[in-house]
Amino acid sequence: MNNIKKKKINLFEAFSWIWSQHRALENIWFEVHSVWISDWYIDAIIAYWVEYLGVKWKKIDKQKTIDFLKNYSLSRDSKKPLKSFAGYSGEQLSILEQVIQKFWNLDINHIHWEDLVDKDIDLFTYSFPCQDISQQWKRSWFSRWQKSRSWLLWEIERILQEIKAINPSKLPKYLMMENVKAILNKEFAPDLQEWKKELSKLWYTSTQAFVVNASDVWSVQNRSRVFMISTLDSSIGEFPKQEVKKKATISKILQKGMERDKFSTDKKIEIVKIHWKTNVWVKKGFIKWYTTFNAECYVYHKDWLAPTITASWAQSRIKYFEDDWEIYFLNSLEHFILQGFDKKFYNKLKRLNFNENKIKFLAGNSINVQVLERIFDFYLK
Predict the structure, then answer these.
(1) Among residues 37, 130, 133, 152, which one is catalytic?
(2) Which domains, ranges and CATH numbers included, belong to the chain?
(3) pTM value?
């Protein structure tokens, strides 16, 4: 493999998070050049560039750095604008400052054609916010007329229109959309159809929005997400259905000799209602007497698939049980591995004082790397 010349690709990751697109392309032997990213969540920005630019701490005047960073749109929790830099170390602030000095505009609202028109973007990915689409939140659609968080999709249209107006030859060759499966629900159909219509006006031909379950590409996670590929080419094939006959299991990703929390409660533990969902390869039980919030009561057998992990709430605290009925939580490294990341990256974050909850949060919002590998291999090779 080392004798094979890598194919170069220029990548723009809008709503970039922690470089799952970048990692997937590298895994299938691309030489990736990140020409731009957009994000405002500080931990994700730091995580991305610690891994891919090898950004290291520089001695800083902390107050001067904070005064500099105050001029940019940043968030502590990925939901609300940052109010204070309290709690961030000099090392973390130094890395953040270096990244912003490289790109200046990370906020999708402030990225314009002059930033991108000379970048020769091959692949432009946009995993726009799902909060207003997901069934876990109050739905407010992603119509261009309603300024929800998911509305940020339309900033992608603006950027592409600006590039086309100045130099059409610099439009990205490929676009990739990713979002939650709920985007295919009938109430969102008009908005999705309008988005495809606007892409057509920008000269893009798009696939049908298609679903890929991570478990069908040998991931340990039952995680379905929607993708759509658009290209300036007049024809594009539909992504073939992926399916494996035998699924991977939670036991495959358990880290031997590594600590994980054991589930315990003052109440009597009794697992009832054991379900075998053979269509999705999930075997789960229900912890009786634990809490009235049902999602917290689910526990999964280690010899079957894990459920979809999330950034917060119950699915960010995945519990599994063994045949002896002992119950444990998957640790943050195991959440990372569920998404296709490795221990080397995990250790870099630990050295930057990212705790268990922060790493699980980063993992839960990521795109599964194995799924991206399969999609990119089909469309970009």
Answers:
(1) 130
(2) 7-243+367-380 (3.40.50.150), 250-338 (3.90.120.10)
(3) 0.92
